[in-house]
Amino acid sequence: MIPRQYPEAPAEVYLFATCLVDLFVPQAGLDAVRLLEREGLTVHFPRGQSCCGQPAYSSGNPEQARAVARAQLDLFAQPWPIVVPSGSCAGMMRHHWPKLFEDDAVAGPKARALAERVYELSEFLLRVLKVRFPAAAAPGSGSGSGSASGRPETVVLHTSCAARREMGTRVHGVELIDALPGVTRLEHERESECCGFGGTFSLKHPDISGAMVQDKVSSACATGCDTLVSADCGCLLNIGHAARRQALGLKVEHMATFLWRRLGGRDNGSDNRGDGSGDGIGGQDAARTGTETQR
Question: Is residue 199 very low, low, confident or very high in pLDDT (cuts 50, 70, 90)?
């Protein structure tokens, strides 16, 4: 992986929320906005965004993926970074959108320029904003009532396959979690393995997928951790549902929500288990956080 050159911290950014966040785990999107706003940034959420096109692309349908990507190339017109709370979707946009348009004289340059501005959330927080969490996360320093920031907590990290191999974001997740006082990160035996989701793979090969997620859940539970943290909602939905189906009591949480909670962010009254409950992104919810929306 070629080392990336990072820009200075900007004043404004775009959020590409991903379709899974928008439809199933909107709280993660709102908490990503809050983390960015905590650093003084203005967050813009273009309303026309949808899927990154990865399901079609990984299923061997480049034309459909190209159509999805093409519809969004002009949504991010300003030269601001595009922050994505998913390493998998960020990888699609950064590495595969340029390939989809490599022979297109008009869309190709747009896709390549956009790809250079795409960052996974953890990577952006660490390498561009250079956040420093310890002082803010110290017990008793949380600004929200009912903050959990001072309670000791053990976690395991799951990094999706694409996030690990295309975006190299496991190191960022590890660094962020390890910087939080009161949080102990545990290694588990199958951390580097796929959870079995793989988008349409879980639909085409349910038995294999089910066996893979069982291995992942069993490995995480064997550590005795309180929470499994991941920055990819597809994996969280798969792991969380498998754990609940077996009544194993393994809590799963998106990285953005976990960080916001540990930093003493206010209790939004939502269930952060990654099962799709919580507020929506955009509209009144975006307005409440001060997020700029573009129609």
Answer: low
